[in-house]
Design a protein that fits this description.
heterodimer; A: about 325 residues; alpha/beta; Rossmann fold; 7-stranded mixed β-sheet; 5-stranded mixed β-sheet; 13 helices; 12 strands; about 40% helix; about 20% strand; B: about 280 residues; 5-stranded parallel β-sheet; two-stranded antiparallel ribbon; 7 strands
Amino acid sequence: MEINAKSIKRWSVIGARPTFGQAVLDLASREDRLMVLTADVSTSAGLDRFRKQYPDRFLDVGIAEQNMMGIATGLATEGLCVITTTFAPFQSMRCLEQIRVYQGYMDMPVVMVGLASGIYHSYLGNTHCCFEDVGVFRSIPNIAIVTPADCLEIIKALEAAVKYEHAVYIRLPEGAGMPVIYKEDYDFRIGKANVLRKGTDIAILANGRMVNTALEVAAGLSINNISAEVTDFHTVKPVDEGYLDSIDRRSLIVTIEEHNVHGGLGSAVSEYMMQKENRPRLMTFGIHDFFPHAGDYASSLEQCGLTTEKIEKSILKGLGA
Amino acid sequence: MSAEKNEMDIDFIREFAFHMRKHALAMAFSAGSHASHFGAGFSLIDILAVLYAHVLRLDKGNPTWPERDRVILSKGHGVLAYYAALAEYGYIPKEDLPGFEQDGSYLFGHPVRSPKHGIEFTNGSLGMGLSLGIGTALALKKRGSGSRVFVIMGDGEMDEGSVWEAFMAGSQFHLDNLIAVIDRNRMQLGGDTEGIISQDLLAERIPSFGWDCYEAQGHDLEDLTHTVQLALKCGRPSAIIAHTVKGRGFSFSEGNNAWHHAVLTQKQYESALEELEVSYHGN
């Protein structure tokens, strides 16, 4: 796909799922082995054009996620490059044991794309939100977990995932009008965090839509003479230990994620850092282990304390500033 | 490479099954205090003997020959029969069998993928194998392969909802290269299948999902072979309900659910071997 300012802007406007659909369409033109499976969400996944253009490489299994993962695995054992997709809670938890046995234990690569992760759809109720997926997948060997920060990173993550030696779960952020984090093409590698803003005092690690929030927080902190580094920690597993080593002398590490504070990015960073004799303090921002009540995205973020203002205020308080 | 044999050689299949039973007994004994899924292994022996001795198109020298038939052991606890078949066929070295369930062995109590030994899939959690079969059969059809996919299932795992997701998909995707063989031994861990979730309507349920469904006597080698041949020619996804006896072959274990997962003592091993010799060779 041609990556330029115009296309980046267009993807941002159309949002995560249509961008994913376009990326799949582009991949199919270069990868003959590509096969895309969905559990009755082809339109929601932005796959309408793909379905029409490549009917032989598209399979709708109906509302049967467990069956989808078995079928995907059978196809993969025969050498096909398989992408599965449905909404994040169903992609991660409805078929979790199939994924554990086939993508984990049997180590059969499949790219699993969870649509609309996080709390964007709080108004629909929490059955259609997903802030537990990273936690459940982190405990299964042989599965990489990637949460793209913007639409370009969705494309980059998908490209990398189909070439990866193990299964990959791509946790799609949600919504049209996605923030643009990457204004031009860049080097994306699964397991390699990207520093977006250099800073010397504290380090803020974020993924998904929270990367934009982290950049806003860092800008606010700079007014208070706090130099905050901001890093797109898109891959929670395998964790980028080299990067974490490089920030272990900072006064504070902050993690921000649209996920339960139990089991996600904050937990992964904490587990690694706690092994060090001298380590910085850690503040984890996320959903504090409760099911938010109904609301639009902004009000849901507010409920969870995931707004720029609240995070900035907490960090300043934590630093005694 | 072994093309499908047209003429049924029952004596050969019977001998194959006899050797499988010996391998399976030895494995059950070598498992020691780990115990083994004895009952479900021995109900399955004759089914796998018919497949590996007569039906399957395989290449003895190349377990990953692209045109081979695929076998998926959905009832993953049936490994005594499965490993025994693979050893008798020649994919698993017979000297590896005593390693069953022992430290460092690839012969786990449920199968773990090892293509060079003919173990194509990892299984053990029930109700999942038929979906693997759908994906595999689809991939084979897509590339125009004539290979067939055999999914070996238990009647107990019919309780799992995912099985029925797969049955629906099999007919939806017109998978005439897919055969499910159901080891209908009428028992599961908790007791008789009929007292838990009855499967007496299986022969009606499966056709209602768009599959051809056959029934066979699961220890009658001729009937089994004939039924598999019928199923292979039906032009639709098909299932064979093979009526079997759990723990088949030994007076202490036949139809005795205490042998679902049990330790085989030296005395029992010796008496089982004797019973086996008598039933095969006569007095």
